[in-house]
Here is the input.
Amino acid sequence: MSKEMRVPTVGESISEVTVGQWFKKDGDLVQLDEVLCELESDKATFEFPAEGNGILRIHAKEGDTVEIGGLICTLEEASSASTSASVSAPVAASLAPATASSEIKEMIVPTVGESITEVTLANWLKKDGDLVTLDEIIAEVDSDKATFELPAEATGILRQVAKEGDVLEIGGLICRIEVGGSLATPSTATPTPTASAATPTSATENYATGHASPAAAKILAEKGILTTTVAGTGKDGRVTKEDAMGASIPAKAQATSTPSSIASTNPAVANSSADARGIRREKMSSLRKTVSRRLVAVKNETAMLTTFNEVNMKPIMDLRSKFKDQFKEKHGVGLGFMSFFTKAVCVALKEWPAVNAQIDGNEMVFHDFCDISVAVSAPKGLVVPVIRNAENLSFDQIEKEIVRLAGKARDNKLSIEEMTGGTFTITNGGVFGSMMSTPIINAPQSAILGMHNIVERPIAENGQVVIRPMMYLALSYDHRIIDGRESVSFLVRVKQLLEDPTRLMFGV
Here is the structure.
C-alpha cells in the first residue's frame, strides 16, 4: 500500500508551484516530517515534509510545475524487517521525549492583523532541545508590516518544526513544547560509539547539511556568494540567515588576473568581456509585494489628483537657528521641520475636515482627531508609523514621537498597532534630494502631503527680487471625497502657517 503526497493549498491566489530541490532520492527510506524537497510559488519558497514513513517514489522532478492538488510523490510501505531495522531506532528516539513528557503543546502562528495571511520565521532565539519557560521569547517573526516576538506558551523542551526563513500561514505550526520534559531526554537519541566511529559524519550530516534556508539563499544570491562556500551553523549544518549576513564576498584576485592575462594575448576577448552585460533576479519581500499591491490598488480605485504650491522656508529656518540650542537643552531632542509641518497640517485638517476623512463603502467617515502617518524608509522597505492625536501634542512631544518611531522602524521593531489607523500622511522626499513629486495616497486615507528639497531660488517679494529658501509642496487627494476648492484651500492654509509660524502659537 502506498501513500500519495500532493501539493497542499498554500494561499488563496496561488494555483501552481514549481518543484525546487529534492533533498531525498527516489528509493530512499524516509521518515515522518522529514523534509523531502522545496516547493516554490510566486510568493514564497516552502519545504515539503513527508506525511509518513516509507520508501520514496518521485513523480515530479526538479523544475516541474505542479498544480495545487497535483501528485508530487508516493510513499511505499517498507517490509516489516527493513522497517523495523532502519526506522524503529529513529522512531524510538523521537518518541522518547514525548513519553517522558506529560503533554505536548503545539504553537501556531497567531493572528497578527486583519490583512496579514502569512509570516516569515526570521530568527530562532532558542535552539532545538532547549528548556524554555512560559512567556520567554523564543523566536522573531516577520510579517509584511512589522517584526514581532513569539513568546513560549508553556514551560518545557522546545522542539522546532519550522526553520528560519520558512514562510508560514496564519495558524501554521511553528514548534512544539514538551511540557514536563527534561534536558537529559534528547541525549537518548545519540548513536552508539561504534556507529559514530565507523561513520563520523553520518550522524550529523543529512539533507540540511550545507543547504541554505530561503532567506539565507536570497541574501547569498544578492552578494554573489555560492552556498557551498558558507559554513552553516544551524541545525544539522544548515546555512541560516545570520550565516548569510555574516558571509563575506570572496577575493577576486584570481578572477581578475585571468582576464588580464588573456587580454594581453587576445584583445578581442578583452573587448567582449568588457562589453558583457549581466542581469540578476531576486524575489520580492513580503513587505515589497504588499506595498506594490496597495499602491496599484490606490491608482486603480481612487480618483487621485495632485495640487502644488511653494513655501518660503526662511521664517522657520530663522526660528530654528534662534532656538534650536535652547530647545534641545530643555527637551533633549532636536527641533526639526517635521514638527512645524505636523502642527500646520493639524490646524488645516480641522478647518477642512474632508481632507481628514475617508470613504467606507457608500459612506464618508470624518475624524475629529488627527492621527498623522509619517512615511519612513526602513531597511526592509517603506513603513508608515502613526503619531496619535498629533493636534494635542506640543513641538517637543511631536519631535520625541518621531524619533521614537523612526528608531523602531530602523530596528524593525514597529508593531502593527503603531502602523495602522492614520487619518492623513506626510512624506518627505526632500531628504533624498527630491525637487517635486506626486505622492500616492496611503489607503484608506484620502490625502497625502509631499515635502521636497529646500532650494534657494529668486522670488518677488515687496516688488523686489530676493533669494529665499523655497520648498515645493504637493497634495495628492481622492477627488471622490475632496473637491478642488478644499484641496487648494487646505494647501494654501498650510503654506500660510509655515510662512508665518507665529500663527501656530496663537492659533490664527
Observations:
- The chain has a mean pLDDT of 80.
- The two ends are 84 Å apart (CA to CA).
- The first strand starts at residue 2 and ends at 6.
